[in-house]
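Task: complex structure prediction.
Instruction: return structure tokens for all chains below.
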Amino acid sequence: MSDGTDKLLEIRNLRVDFPVRGGLFTAVRDVNFSIRKGETFGLVGESGSGKTTIGRAIVRIAQASSGEILFRGRRINGRITRELDSEVVQKIQMIFQDPMASLNERAKVDYIVSEGIINLGKFKNEAERLALVEKALLEVGLLPEFASRFPHEFSGGQRQRIGIARSLIMEPELVICDEPISALDVSIRAQVLNLMSELQKSKGLTYLFIAHDLSVVRFITDRIAVINKGELVELAETEELFAHPLHPYTRALLSAIPVPDPILERKKVLIVYDPASRDYRTDKPAWTEIAAGHFARANEAEAAEYRRLLAR
Amino acid sequence: MADGKAVAAGPPAAVVAKGDAAAGADPALFTFAEFDRDAGERIGWSNYSYWRSTLHMFLRNRVALFLLVLLGTILAFTFLQPLLPNQRSPTLINIDPATGRQFRNLVPSAEYWFGTNSIGQDLWSRIWSGTRTSLLIGIIVGVVEMVLGIAFGAIWGYVRKADRVFTEVYNVLNNIPTTIVLMLLAYIMRPSFQTMVIAMCAAGWHGVARFVRNQIVIIRDREYNLASRCLGTPTHRIIMKNLLPYLVSVIMLQTALSIPGTIGWEVFLTYIGIGLPVSIPSLGNLVNEGRLIMMAPELRYQLIFPTIVVSIITISFYVLGNAFSDASDPRNHV
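Output:
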């Protein structure tokens, strides 16, 4: 693992609001984390917790209301120059959740895959463009002849791989994977996950892996951040988090992982997270480093309690 | 780990099965198949083409095909008719050489197939001339409205910052009654073919723009459009490549319906007296003339003939529009 200083992406005090009837809805608030070069950073939380919004704020589909998103130390949210904009478009790419919805049904695979390089003008002539498309398709295990077909002719796994090819042709450094396998058939998930791991190794990619399936996240990520109602509640290295979950929400989440054993599953005790169980009236919670690399949202009393738990 | 074991357990079983089969059968009939990873990717495919499938689906609709041929023949004939031998000018007032009086209100006969009107003009040639004028107005207005409506509607729908401004402008324009716009423009300019076209485009384009806008708002936040934004696709290409191709069927239906609608407006404007001048035959003029003498049963042919043509055109465009809309919807493609 890297030494922790090589931060590819850093998020500071990120807040994202959406206008709703009669005011603003805060989808994400006070989010702080950084992603190291070459790692797979997992972001987990329940539906509506704001994990997709964070991903979208990084690729600037959603506007950050306040806070900073730094890519290689440069601020990329808010107003940025045209050069930085096209650099960010090239360096940060996204893989979408639903392969059925994320491909343009009226365009051929050829156009879908080369859309990004057309925008950036990354080729000199038509022959070079076709060669790049062919290479991108081969890299994700698709046949070059697929370029002349329409997306509806492919299976879910193949469509997701077209989506991966579309992002990889840009030669990105950071890929935001927004639940890339949750819409796939279970039999296809391993195939796509393995492909993503191979590509990470061969191209030195960094992933922000957004998911709600904890067993998948445990399998693929190096570090995990847990998000609840727009706030990060805990962040640690994957095995550390699974071994010593501190925040009650994280514990509740981990207790919900299904066990592939019907007898154990029936006896399993689910922990239910109750936000009202904690008293934050006088002692406000803050994003605190409990142990090296292990952060949690806690007030001082809780932090002391968590440190005691970890020391044991 | 579990996966690896399952795979490892596979081959020995297969070898045993193969051995059994080979023992009982002629080995020449069996060859070992090489493992080919690509073979798993190959899928049945249809060589699908959007426009070819659209055409195919459209041609399967016999009624629509018949009406298309009918409409095409009518349009072609309106241009051919003046070139045929023994045709009278639609504006010529026919005079009986014996008496020196006009052939007024002659019922249909071998000489005047559709009869003559109240000042002795040949209704047959007037109907074809009028159909040509009205169809041209309808088609030109339909196309202009579609072009303006798509251009403004696409920007209105996709560019969020423009939404507010466009909506306010639309509200103002839309709150002026169409009749008043048409009447004002028809008064300001001289009654002519161009005036009609300009007036009706001015009255109708913003309705089309709002229609296109609503359609675009429905699809603009689908994931494939977000993906294009992530790839840095400029707005104009998102509109051309991602949005408009999805709207082909609804836009074509809208345009097909607007053509008979325009002809209807033309009839109405002529009825209230600000349509085309009487010197230019149009379906509006003909229906209006026929309406004046509607109460005399023996003269009703002067209303019936133009009405039949208007009906055929209206129904044809309606059915054609629906048929094309269905055919161009890829959900209906096999």
